[in-house]
Amino acid sequence: MPTPPLPSRRGLLFGTAAASAGVLLTGCTSNENNNGDEGGTRRADTAQDKPGKPVTIGFAGPQADHGWLNAINDNARKRAAEYSDVTLEITEGSNDTAQQIGQIETLINKEVDVLVVLPADGKALTQVGLKAMRAGIPVVNLDRIFASPQAYRCWIGGDNYGMGLNAGRYIGERLRDKKNAKVVELAGLDNLELTRQRTQGFDDALKNYPNIEKVARQAAEFTVESGQAKTAQLLQAQPSFDALWNHDDDQGVGAERAIRQAGRDEFFMVGGAGSRHAMEAIEAGDGVLEATVLYPPTMAASAVDLARALGQGKGVGGLAEFEIPASLTLYSAIVTKDNVEEYLPTGFV
Protein backbone atom coordinates (compact mmCIF):
# COMPACT_ATOMS: atom_id res chain seq x y z
CA MET A 1 0.00 0.00 0.00
CA PRO A 2 1.07 3.61 -0.59
CA THR A 3 3.19 5.77 1.67
CA PRO A 4 2.48 9.46 1.17
CA PRO A 5 4.08 12.50 2.76
CA LEU A 6 3.43 13.35 6.38
CA PRO A 7 0.12 15.14 6.85
CA SER A 8 1.63 18.63 6.64
CA ARG A 9 -0.45 19.29 3.53
CA ARG A 10 2.07 20.76 1.13
CA GLY A 11 0.49 22.47 -1.83
CA LEU A 12 -3.08 22.32 -2.98
CA LEU A 13 -5.84 19.93 -2.00
CA PHE A 14 -7.72 18.41 -4.89
CA GLY A 15 -10.85 16.26 -4.68
CA THR A 16 -11.16 13.19 -6.86
CA ALA A 17 -14.10 12.78 -9.15
CA ALA A 18 -16.31 9.78 -9.19
CA ALA A 19 -16.41 8.51 -12.68
CA SER A 20 -13.35 9.89 -14.40
CA ALA A 21 -9.68 9.47 -13.70
CA GLY A 22 -8.95 12.68 -15.54
CA VAL A 23 -10.72 15.10 -13.28
CA LEU A 24 -7.52 16.63 -11.98
CA LEU A 25 -6.91 18.08 -15.41
CA THR A 26 -10.51 18.27 -16.48
CA GLY A 27 -11.03 21.39 -18.39
CA CYS A 28 -7.62 21.26 -19.77
CA THR A 29 -9.57 23.06 -22.43
CA SER A 30 -7.51 25.27 -24.64
CA ASN A 31 -4.12 25.70 -26.22
CA GLU A 32 -4.82 29.33 -26.96
CA ASN A 33 -2.86 32.18 -25.44
CA ASN A 34 -5.41 34.89 -24.75
CA ASN A 35 -3.48 38.10 -24.42
CA GLY A 36 -6.61 40.18 -24.29
CA ASP A 37 -8.11 38.89 -21.04
CA GLU A 38 -9.78 41.44 -18.82
CA GLY A 39 -7.41 42.74 -16.19
CA GLY A 40 -4.42 42.29 -18.49
CA THR A 41 -3.64 38.72 -17.40
CA ARG A 42 -2.67 36.06 -19.94
CA ARG A 43 -4.13 32.60 -19.59
CA ALA A 44 -1.63 29.79 -19.13
CA ASP A 45 -1.52 27.14 -21.84
CA THR A 46 -3.17 23.95 -20.63
CA ALA A 47 -2.97 20.34 -21.68
CA GLN A 48 -6.17 19.29 -23.43
CA ASP A 49 -7.67 16.40 -25.29
CA LYS A 50 -6.73 17.55 -28.78
CA PRO A 51 -3.42 15.96 -29.85
CA GLY A 52 -0.33 18.04 -29.19
CA LYS A 53 3.41 17.49 -29.05
CA PRO A 54 4.21 13.74 -28.83
CA VAL A 55 5.28 12.74 -25.32
CA THR A 56 6.93 9.50 -24.20
CA ILE A 57 6.16 8.78 -20.55
CA GLY A 58 8.16 6.22 -18.60
CA PHE A 59 6.10 4.58 -15.85
CA ALA A 60 7.72 2.63 -13.02
CA GLY A 61 5.75 1.19 -10.13
CA PRO A 62 6.08 -1.58 -7.55
CA GLN A 63 4.92 -5.13 -8.05
CA ALA A 64 1.14 -5.34 -8.39
CA ASP A 65 0.68 -7.79 -5.52
CA HIS A 66 -2.36 -6.01 -4.11
CA GLY A 67 -5.66 -4.97 -5.68
CA TRP A 68 -4.90 -1.29 -5.24
CA LEU A 69 -1.45 -1.55 -6.84
CA ASN A 70 -2.84 -3.51 -9.78
CA ALA A 71 -5.42 -0.75 -10.24
CA ILE A 72 -2.59 1.82 -10.28
CA ASN A 73 -1.05 0.11 -13.31
CA ASP A 74 -4.42 -0.30 -15.05
CA ASN A 75 -5.32 3.35 -14.55
CA ALA A 76 -2.00 4.49 -16.01
CA ARG A 77 -2.30 2.24 -19.07
CA LYS A 78 -5.91 3.16 -19.78
CA ARG A 79 -5.30 6.88 -19.39
CA ALA A 80 -2.28 6.84 -21.70
CA ALA A 81 -4.27 4.91 -24.31
CA GLU A 82 -6.77 7.78 -24.46
CA TYR A 83 -4.09 10.10 -25.86
CA SER A 84 -2.86 9.67 -29.43
CA ASP A 85 0.15 11.84 -28.57
CA VAL A 86 1.31 9.75 -25.59
CA THR A 87 3.55 6.69 -25.68
CA LEU A 88 3.74 4.83 -22.37
CA GLU A 89 6.90 2.89 -21.54
CA ILE A 90 5.82 0.84 -18.53
CA THR A 91 8.13 -1.39 -16.48
CA GLU A 92 7.22 -4.78 -15.09
CA GLY A 93 7.13 -3.47 -11.54
CA SER A 94 9.13 -4.72 -8.60
CA ASN A 95 9.26 -4.54 -4.81
CA ASP A 96 13.02 -5.06 -5.00
CA THR A 97 14.64 -1.64 -4.63
CA ALA A 98 17.70 -2.44 -6.72
CA GLN A 99 15.60 -3.89 -9.52
CA GLN A 100 13.27 -0.89 -9.62
CA ILE A 101 16.25 1.47 -9.68
CA GLY A 102 17.61 -0.48 -12.64
CA GLN A 103 14.27 -0.23 -14.44
CA ILE A 104 14.15 3.53 -13.93
CA GLU A 105 17.75 3.91 -15.10
CA THR A 106 16.78 2.03 -18.26
CA LEU A 107 13.98 4.53 -18.85
CA ILE A 108 16.43 7.40 -18.27
CA ASN A 109 18.83 5.89 -20.81
CA LYS A 110 15.95 5.63 -23.29
CA GLU A 111 15.58 9.41 -22.85
CA VAL A 112 11.86 9.35 -22.14
CA ASP A 113 10.33 12.82 -21.95
CA VAL A 114 8.80 12.45 -18.48
CA LEU A 115 8.92 9.85 -15.72
CA VAL A 116 6.05 8.74 -13.47
CA VAL A 117 7.39 6.79 -10.49
CA LEU A 118 5.56 5.07 -7.66
CA PRO A 119 8.59 3.90 -5.68
CA ALA A 120 8.55 0.68 -3.70
CA ASP A 121 10.55 2.68 -1.14
CA GLY A 122 10.57 6.44 -1.56
CA LYS A 123 13.68 7.04 0.53
CA ALA A 124 15.70 4.31 -1.18
CA LEU A 125 14.80 5.54 -4.68
CA THR A 126 15.47 9.22 -4.06
CA GLN A 127 18.86 9.13 -5.77
CA VAL A 128 17.48 7.75 -9.02
CA GLY A 129 14.80 10.44 -8.95
CA LEU A 130 17.56 13.03 -8.59
CA LYS A 131 19.43 11.39 -11.46
CA ALA A 132 16.42 11.74 -13.75
CA MET A 133 15.85 15.36 -12.81
CA ARG A 134 19.53 16.18 -13.40
CA ALA A 135 19.24 14.53 -16.81
CA GLY A 136 16.48 16.97 -17.67
CA ILE A 137 13.66 14.43 -17.32
CA PRO A 138 10.89 15.80 -15.08
CA VAL A 139 9.58 13.30 -12.56
CA VAL A 140 6.00 12.92 -11.39
CA ASN A 141 6.36 11.24 -7.99
CA LEU A 142 3.27 9.12 -7.43
CA ASP A 143 2.08 8.59 -3.86
CA ARG A 144 5.09 7.18 -1.96
CA ILE A 145 7.23 10.26 -1.69
CA PHE A 146 10.94 10.66 -2.34
CA ALA A 147 13.08 11.94 0.54
CA SER A 148 14.00 15.14 -1.32
CA PRO A 149 11.74 17.55 -3.24
CA GLN A 150 14.63 17.95 -5.66
CA ALA A 151 13.98 14.38 -6.86
CA TYR A 152 10.63 15.24 -8.46
CA ARG A 153 8.89 18.05 -10.30
CA CYS A 154 5.42 17.21 -9.00
CA TRP A 155 4.07 14.92 -6.30
CA ILE A 156 0.53 13.53 -6.49
CA GLY A 157 -0.92 11.10 -4.00
CA GLY A 158 -3.46 10.18 -1.39
CA ASP A 159 -4.07 11.42 2.12
CA ASN A 160 -3.66 8.70 4.74
CA TYR A 161 -4.19 11.05 7.68
CA GLY A 162 -7.31 12.31 5.90
CA MET A 163 -8.55 8.74 5.49
CA GLY A 164 -8.45 8.20 9.23
CA LEU A 165 -9.89 11.64 9.92
CA ASN A 166 -12.87 11.15 7.61
CA ALA A 167 -13.51 7.61 8.84
CA GLY A 168 -13.52 8.92 12.41
CA ARG A 169 -15.81 11.79 11.53
CA TYR A 170 -18.27 9.51 9.78
CA ILE A 171 -18.36 7.07 12.68
CA GLY A 172 -18.52 9.94 15.14
CA GLU A 173 -21.53 11.49 13.47
CA ARG A 174 -23.30 8.14 13.27
CA LEU A 175 -22.75 7.52 16.99
CA ARG A 176 -22.86 11.05 18.37
CA ASP A 177 -26.14 10.49 20.23
CA LYS A 178 -25.26 7.06 21.63
CA LYS A 179 -24.06 6.95 25.20
CA ASN A 180 -20.86 5.01 25.92
CA ALA A 181 -20.36 4.06 22.29
CA LYS A 182 -17.52 1.65 21.58
CA VAL A 183 -15.45 1.34 18.39
CA VAL A 184 -12.65 -1.00 17.29
CA GLU A 185 -9.96 -0.56 14.65
CA LEU A 186 -8.52 -3.07 12.18
CA ALA A 187 -5.31 -1.41 11.03
CA GLY A 188 -2.77 -2.37 8.40
CA LEU A 189 0.94 -3.07 8.80
CA ASP A 190 2.17 -1.19 11.82
CA ASN A 191 5.70 -0.82 10.47
CA LEU A 192 4.38 1.42 7.68
CA GLU A 193 4.11 5.17 8.17
CA LEU A 194 0.80 5.18 6.30
CA THR A 195 -0.76 2.94 8.96
CA ARG A 196 0.36 5.26 11.72
CA GLN A 197 -1.04 8.25 9.81
CA ARG A 198 -4.42 6.57 9.33
CA THR A 199 -4.63 5.67 13.01
CA GLN A 200 -3.60 9.18 14.05
CA GLY A 201 -6.28 10.75 11.88
CA PHE A 202 -8.88 8.38 13.26
CA ASP A 203 -7.89 9.07 16.86
CA ASP A 204 -7.85 12.83 16.28
CA ALA A 205 -11.36 12.73 14.83
CA LEU A 206 -12.71 10.72 17.76
CA LYS A 207 -11.43 13.35 20.20
CA ASN A 208 -14.41 15.46 19.13
CA TYR A 209 -16.83 12.78 20.34
CA PRO A 210 -16.34 12.26 24.08
CA ASN A 211 -19.13 9.68 24.15
CA ILE A 212 -17.09 7.32 21.96
CA GLU A 213 -14.26 5.10 23.20
CA LYS A 214 -11.90 3.07 21.03
CA VAL A 215 -11.77 -0.15 23.00
CA ALA A 216 -9.53 -2.31 20.78
CA ARG A 217 -7.12 -2.24 17.85
CA GLN A 218 -5.52 -5.03 15.83
CA ALA A 219 -2.94 -4.63 13.07
CA ALA A 220 -3.38 -6.89 10.03
CA GLU A 221 -1.23 -7.21 6.90
CA PHE A 222 -3.39 -5.97 4.00
CA THR A 223 -4.35 -9.53 3.05
CA VAL A 224 -7.64 -11.41 3.17
CA GLU A 225 -6.15 -14.05 5.47
CA SER A 226 -4.76 -11.55 7.98
CA GLY A 227 -8.01 -9.58 7.92
CA GLN A 228 -9.99 -12.68 8.79
CA ALA A 229 -7.63 -13.81 11.56
CA LYS A 230 -7.29 -10.41 13.23
CA THR A 231 -10.99 -9.65 13.02
CA ALA A 232 -11.77 -13.01 14.64
CA GLN A 233 -9.49 -11.99 17.51
CA LEU A 234 -11.26 -8.65 17.86
CA LEU A 235 -14.66 -10.33 17.92
CA GLN A 236 -13.59 -12.83 20.54
CA ALA A 237 -12.15 -10.11 22.77
CA GLN A 238 -15.07 -7.69 22.40
CA PRO A 239 -18.51 -9.18 23.02
CA SER A 240 -20.23 -5.99 21.89
CA PHE A 241 -19.30 -2.75 20.15
CA ASP A 242 -20.87 -0.21 17.79
CA ALA A 243 -18.49 0.36 14.87
CA LEU A 244 -15.38 -1.09 13.25
CA TRP A 245 -13.00 0.84 11.04
CA ASN A 246 -10.93 -1.30 8.69
CA HIS A 247 -7.97 0.41 6.99
CA ASP A 248 -8.01 -1.66 3.80
CA ASP A 249 -10.78 -3.16 1.67
CA ASP A 250 -8.66 -6.14 0.57
CA GLN A 251 -8.17 -7.29 4.15
CA GLY A 252 -11.79 -6.27 4.66
CA VAL A 253 -12.89 -9.29 2.62
CA GLY A 254 -11.41 -11.46 5.37
CA ALA A 255 -12.94 -9.24 8.04
CA GLU A 256 -16.40 -9.72 6.53
CA ARG A 257 -15.82 -13.48 6.44
CA ALA A 258 -14.92 -13.57 10.14
CA ILE A 259 -17.95 -11.44 11.00
CA ARG A 260 -20.32 -13.77 9.13
CA GLN A 261 -18.77 -16.83 10.77
CA ALA A 262 -19.24 -15.26 14.20
CA GLY A 263 -22.84 -14.34 13.44
CA ARG A 264 -22.27 -10.77 14.60
CA ASP A 265 -24.26 -7.81 13.27
CA GLU A 266 -24.72 -5.40 16.19
CA PHE A 267 -22.21 -2.95 14.68
CA PHE A 268 -21.46 -1.29 11.35
CA MET A 269 -18.14 -1.29 9.50
CA VAL A 270 -16.31 1.40 7.53
CA GLY A 271 -13.69 0.25 5.04
CA GLY A 272 -10.71 1.91 3.40
CA ALA A 273 -9.31 2.49 -0.12
CA GLY A 274 -12.43 1.88 -2.24
CA SER A 275 -12.45 -1.60 -3.79
CA ARG A 276 -15.22 -2.63 -6.14
CA HIS A 277 -16.13 -5.47 -3.80
CA ALA A 278 -16.60 -3.03 -0.92
CA MET A 279 -18.70 -0.69 -3.03
CA GLU A 280 -20.91 -3.54 -4.24
CA ALA A 281 -21.39 -4.69 -0.64
CA ILE A 282 -22.33 -1.15 0.37
CA GLU A 283 -24.76 -0.97 -2.55
CA ALA A 284 -26.35 -4.32 -1.61
CA GLY A 285 -26.78 -3.20 1.99
CA ASP A 286 -27.15 -6.73 3.33
CA GLY A 287 -24.09 -6.81 5.59
CA VAL A 288 -22.32 -4.71 8.21
CA LEU A 289 -20.20 -2.76 5.68
CA GLU A 290 -21.81 0.66 5.48
CA ALA A 291 -19.12 2.91 3.99
CA THR A 292 -15.57 3.05 2.70
CA VAL A 293 -13.05 5.90 2.69
CA LEU A 294 -11.35 6.39 -0.66
CA TYR A 295 -7.65 6.18 -1.42
CA PRO A 296 -8.23 6.48 -5.18
CA PRO A 297 -5.98 4.56 -7.61
CA THR A 298 -7.21 7.01 -10.25
CA MET A 299 -4.23 9.07 -9.07
CA ALA A 300 -2.16 7.09 -11.60
CA ALA A 301 -4.37 8.33 -14.44
CA SER A 302 -4.00 11.87 -13.16
CA ALA A 303 -0.23 11.35 -12.94
CA VAL A 304 -0.25 10.50 -16.65
CA ASP A 305 -2.24 13.69 -17.29
CA LEU A 306 0.32 15.69 -15.33
CA ALA A 307 3.23 14.01 -17.14
CA ARG A 308 1.65 14.81 -20.50
CA ALA A 309 1.16 18.42 -19.43
CA LEU A 310 4.81 18.63 -18.36
CA GLY A 311 5.98 17.10 -21.64
CA GLN A 312 3.94 19.58 -23.63
CA GLY A 313 4.81 22.57 -21.47
CA LYS A 314 1.23 23.13 -20.37
CA GLY A 315 -0.48 24.09 -17.15
CA VAL A 316 -3.60 22.81 -15.42
CA GLY A 317 -7.01 23.90 -16.69
CA GLY A 318 -8.87 26.10 -14.24
CA LEU A 319 -5.72 27.50 -12.63
CA ALA A 320 -4.14 30.85 -13.52
CA GLU A 321 -0.53 29.66 -13.20
CA PHE A 322 1.47 28.74 -16.29
CA GLU A 323 2.95 25.67 -14.60
CA ILE A 324 1.43 22.62 -12.94
CA PRO A 325 1.53 22.70 -9.11
CA ALA A 326 4.38 21.12 -7.18
CA SER A 327 2.08 19.01 -5.03
CA LEU A 328 -1.44 17.59 -5.31
CA THR A 329 -3.10 15.79 -2.41
CA LEU A 330 -6.24 13.83 -3.27
CA TYR A 331 -9.29 13.95 -1.04
CA SER A 332 -10.41 10.88 0.90
CA ALA A 333 -14.12 10.91 0.13
CA ILE A 334 -16.62 8.77 2.04
CA VAL A 335 -18.61 6.35 -0.13
CA THR A 336 -22.00 5.33 1.25
CA LYS A 337 -25.17 3.84 -0.17
CA ASP A 338 -26.29 7.38 -1.04
CA ASN A 339 -23.42 8.02 -3.48
CA VAL A 340 -22.00 4.58 -4.30
CA GLU A 341 -23.34 4.57 -7.88
CA GLU A 342 -21.30 7.69 -8.55
CA TYR A 343 -18.06 6.18 -7.27
CA LEU A 344 -18.52 2.56 -8.39
CA PRO A 345 -16.65 3.04 -11.70
CA THR A 346 -13.48 3.91 -9.74
CA GLY A 347 -13.60 0.78 -7.55
CA PHE A 348 -10.58 -1.46 -7.95
CA VAL A 349 -10.62 -5.26 -8.18
Automatic annotation (TrEMBL):
Domain Periplasmic binding protein: 57-314
Major localization class: other
Coiled coil residues, start to end: none
Biased composition regions of type Basic and acidic residues, renumbered to the chain: 39-51
Signal peptide residues on this chain, from the entry's feature table: none
A GO term for molecular function: carbohydrate binding
Keywords: Signal
Superkingdom field: Bacteria
Subcellular location: Cell envelope
An annotated GO cellular component: cell envelope
PROSITE patterns in the cross-refs: TAT
Chain positions covered by the region annotation Disordered: 30-51
PANTHER family to which the protein is assigned, alphabetical: D-ALLOSE-BINDING PERIPLASMIC PROTEIN-RELATED (PTHR46847)
UniProt family annotation: Belongs to the bacterial solute-binding protein 2 family.
This protein's name: Sugar ABC transporter substrate-binding protein
Protein species of origin: Streptomyces carminius
Lineage, uppermost ranks: Bacteria, Bacillati, Actinomycetota, Actinomycetes, Kitasatosporales
